[in-house]
């Protein structure tokens, strides 16, 4: 296969068992699902409701919340009720560590209100208590008909399993590197726990696996192995991806490789927010990743040139930013009012070199005058030039044309 054939032929989706998470289908032939996680204190009902609502409105289809102590568990049913009263139906996932078995037992309303439980086999319990406490959580999931994500993380890996596999590798003369043994430990931890859950009575259609590490190549290796050895639905995420562009690039690189190979049924972009930063950023990045790869369409696409010496004016940059911002702001309403609006393509180009051609490829596009060009901006709709804008109000006039186009085409 040459490189042109490689890029022109999409990889088939890996076959996985579909899981119903509070009405959202994960796996099977269903689209890849976007999820996120709050960073509020779950016991603070007001703050948690506000952030869950914001994440849901931004497009998060599943939201995970921390359930780490009595106060958090007691707050969960109130959070669910408040969200329902606001018309926010996004499923809530309870993230349990260390005492999940105890909290589910003592707070049955919490157990019922959650759409899924997430447990980490590395810290669900230690030594002789591990299997017992894991089993108790699985039994609660069966009782309340809830799916479970068994989420392995190399930061809290089962040390007994890792030591055993290291010793076995050493006895064989060390055919595997330390990294390879670690990969195998992560995969085995997930599969052993999943098989135990099935033995207890949890169906395969109630199990989602994840195997998170924090380096791109390690993540690709681990999930490739896991995908080859099971048909459970898989949740993807690069853990501790970092802050800013580093976190965005690392997560996109790792998840992009796996998604292109058909691996992954639900994703989270785990970004460290800047102080006071917007938690919704991780939802936006996840959506953009799936959209640019052609897997899903969430919002209209705005194409804009990067600028060069021919575009010393900032008009096209400001217009592209304004239109993109307006689209994100209006999408919650547009999605209901204008079915199909997410497929819209808008082009905002900066000069005559590629401007007219790019604009013709868009549903609606404008080619603004570059440095030294005539002060005229042709507008193209569905490949045809319909108008040339001139004067000081070009940006406002084009914005209105975009709004009119949406109203006419998607009404």
UniProtKB/TrEMBL annotation:
Residues 18-286 form the IspG TIM-barrel domain. Its EC number is 1.17.7.3. The keyword 4Fe-4S applies. Keywords: 4Fe-4S, Iron, Iron-sulfur, Isoprene biosynthesis, Metal-binding, Oxidoreductase. It holds the Pfam family GcpE. Its cofactor is [4Fe-4S] cluster. GO terms for biological process: isopentenyl diphosphate biosynthetic process, methylerythritol 4-phosphate pathway; terpenoid biosynthetic process. Binds 1 [4Fe-4S] cluster. It catalyses: (2E)-4-hydroxy-3-methylbut-2-enyl diphosphate + oxidized [flavodoxin] + H2O + 2 H(+) = 2-C-methyl-D-erythritol 2,4-cyclic diphosphate + reduced [flavodoxin]. Residues 302-403 form the IspG C-terminal domain. GO terms for molecular function: 4 iron, 4 sulfur cluster binding; 4-hydroxy-3-methylbut-2-en-1-yl diphosphate synthase activity (ferredoxin); 4-hydroxy-3-methylbut-2-enyl-diphosphate synthase activity (flavodoxin); iron ion binding. Pathway: Isoprenoid biosynthesis; isopentenyl diphosphate biosynthesis via DXP pathway; isopentenyl diphosphate from 1-deoxy-D-xylulose 5-phosphate: step 5/6. InterPro entries: Dihydropteroate_synth-like_sf, IspG_bac, IspG_bac-typ, IspG_C, IspG_TIM, NO2/SO3_Rdtase_4Fe4S_sf. [4Fe-4S] cluster binds at residues 305, 308, 351, 358. Converts 2C-methyl-D-erythritol 2,4-cyclodiphosphate (ME-2,4cPP) into 1-hydroxy-2-methyl-2-(E)-butenyl 4-diphosphate. Belongs to the IspG family. This is 4-hydroxy-3-methylbut-2-en-1-yl diphosphate synthase (flavodoxin). It comes from Bartonella choladocola.
């Amino acid at each position: 296969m040459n490189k042109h054939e490689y890029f022109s032929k999409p990889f088939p989706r890996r076959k996985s068992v579909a899981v119903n998470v509070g009405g959202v289908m994960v796996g099977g032939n269903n689209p890849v699902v976007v999820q996120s996680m709050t960073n509020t204190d779950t016991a603070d009902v007001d703050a948690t409701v506000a952030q869950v609502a914001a994440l849901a409105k931004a497009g998060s289809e599943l939201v995970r919340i921390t359930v780490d102590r009595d106060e958090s568990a007691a707050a969960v049913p109130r959070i669910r009720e408040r969200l329902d009263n606001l018309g926010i139906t996004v499923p809530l996932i309870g993230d349990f560590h260390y005492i999940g078995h105890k909290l589910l037992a003592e707070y049955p309303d919490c157990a019922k209100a959650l759409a899924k439980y997430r447990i980490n086999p590395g810290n669900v319990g230690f030594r002789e208590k591990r299997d017992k406490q894991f089993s108790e959580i699985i039994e609660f999931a069966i009782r309340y008909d809830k799916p479970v994500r068994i989420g392995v993380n190399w930061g809290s890996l089962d040390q007994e399993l890792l030591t055993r596999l290291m010793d076995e590798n050493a006895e064989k003369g060390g055919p595997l590197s330390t990294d390879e043994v670690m990969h195998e430990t992560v995969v085995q931890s997930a599969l052993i726990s999943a098989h135990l859950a099935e033995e207890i009575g949890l169906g395969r259609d109630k199990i989602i696996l994840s195997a998170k590490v924090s380096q791109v190549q390690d993540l690709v290796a681990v999930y490739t192995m896991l995908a080859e050895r099971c048909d459970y639905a898989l949740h993807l995420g690069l853990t501790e991806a970092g802050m800013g562009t580093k976190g965005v690039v690392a997560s996109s690189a790792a998840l992009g490789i796996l998604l292109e190979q058909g691996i992954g049924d639900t994703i989270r972009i785990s970004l460290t927010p800047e102080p006071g930063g917007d938690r919704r950023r991780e939802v936006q990045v996840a959506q953009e990743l799936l959209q640019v790869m052609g897997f899903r369409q969430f919002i209209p696409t705005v194409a804009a040139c990067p600028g060069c010496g021919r575009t010393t004016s900032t008009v096209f940059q400001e217009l592209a930013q304004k239109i993109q911002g307006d689209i994100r702001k209006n999408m919650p309403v547009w999605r209901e009012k204008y079915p199909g609006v997410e497929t819209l393509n808008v082009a905002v180009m900066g000069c005559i070199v590629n401007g007219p051609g790019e604009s013709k490829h868009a549903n609606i596009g404008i080619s603004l005058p570059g440095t030294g060009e005539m002060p005229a901006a042709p507008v193209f709709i569905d490949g045809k030039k319909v108008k040339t804008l001139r004067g000081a109000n070009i940006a406002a006039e084009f914005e209105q044309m975009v709004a009119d186009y949406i109203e006419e085409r998607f009404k």
